[in-house]
Amino acid sequence: MVVGKVANEKSFAKLFKQNSIKFLMPKKDLEFVKKVQKEITLLSNASALLGWDQQVYMPKKASQDRAEQATILDGILHKKITDDKFYKAVLSLSKSKLPNDDARTIEILKRDLGKARKLPNEFIEELSKTTSQAFDAWQEARERKDFKIFLPHLKKIVELKKKQAKYIGLAGHTYNSLLDSFEEGMTVEELKPKFEKLKIELIELIKKIENSEKYKTQKNIFENYTFSNDKQIIMSKEIAEKIGLKKDISRVDISTHPFTIRLGTKDVRITTNVRTDPLFSLLSTMHEAGHALYEIQMPEKFKYTALMDTPSLGIHESQSRFWENMVGRNKPFWKYYSKQFKSEFGLKEKEEEIFSSVNHIFPGKIRIESDEVHYCLHVILRFEIEIDLIAGKISVEELPKIWNNKMKELFGVTPKNDAEGVLQDVHWSGGSFGYFPTYALGTIYASQIYEQMKKEIPKIEEEIEKGNFEKMQKWLGEKIHSQGRKYLAEDLIKKVCGEGLNPEVYIKYLTKKFSEIYGF
Ligand code: CO
Known about the structure:
Structural class: mainly alpha
Number of helices: 22
Helix content: 55-70%
Number of strands: 3
Bound molecules: cobalt (II) ion
Strand order of the largest sheet: 1-3-2
Distance between the termini: 72 Å
CATH class of the largest domain: Mainly Alpha
Order of helices and strands: HHHHHHHHHHHEEEHHHHHHHHHHH
């Protein structure tokens, strides 16, 4: 028998003290838990591969087959995760004295499994099937710019999510139970006031920018040129490699919505795409490469354990936003990159003008095409809508109208159609409610991390100017990536930066940068 070996804690403690074979009793449980974790990881990788293929290469008519494949695989995975023997072994180990990393693994598993076991198998299967079909409906709805095609699917998903929140049943706001899956420990109660304050400060900053002389006469020089799509993709792939994403452990493909996915410890893939804005491909590739680098730099010793993970998606996003914003939108980077960019695309303007155009501020309607200043407002809009949907304060039918009203209120613009409004993001079709806030958290964390990095490596901007990214990559690896999921997000940020989540650091960073660019 593998489980329940440490039935008598007192006798085990005695044995532990007296005996040199101190880990004998929980050893079998530990081996069993490690074996199951490995199986879960491998099944998850296979499931992820199906998802990657669906978004990258799968022929359109394969969607029915794929939905069934995904459903059965997710069912097997869920059974494995919720297996009684596995849980009992974890519970038993949680009462044992274990070496640090094992103890933390067991602590994580106890929490994660406890949550997962609250969801019945039928519920998981229903959710998986619903979301798989909803993804296709969302794609069609977006193509035809018609929310009604997606409406019945989204209604089903919202109901399932409310049900899920009830099953999980964390304290406070119903939404906490969903948010926690992406940002462990974070709550509406903590986040809402911080976002509320950030919203006001961002709107104030945007007003200052819009009132500046420079804003009134600003020109986006990129509009005067054509940028070959193929060249953009090639240059994006080059920059991904430069950041540290080597070809023998990764791929860069094309999908509607860029993403990163880990299919194994030495197989992390990213996708990119091209938009009218020539920076989209470059910056979104740097973004995804930042995610991928995090995955790749997690230590080998954590392989197949719960530690081979991030504390939260906010921390994960801090790594992508770091490369996108702190590097890709920063002056030192354009000192390095302008020359190549100019020669590849035949630009005549000076480096300074290119840098200004990179940081051209305008109230756009699409989140993933957003400038740095408007970005968090896009997130806060979604956060407010999600909270109200889950609380039952608003209905799915009203969404396009509510979305457009909020856009008007925060950005002063109204989407022309649902495709550039409520239908723009893939998340809701996948049932990912509680995911959006992590984008803003990551953006804020990234600025805090950069401030700290500058203190510890004073000449880091000179390194960027030379196109040397190794020191940053190593520093991030040591401080963040190598920690895996040993700490909660708040604790990790405290450990690295000396304080927890602080939107003020982000506002200060934005104000300094954009007051210099716009001269106010
Ligand atoms: Co991201």
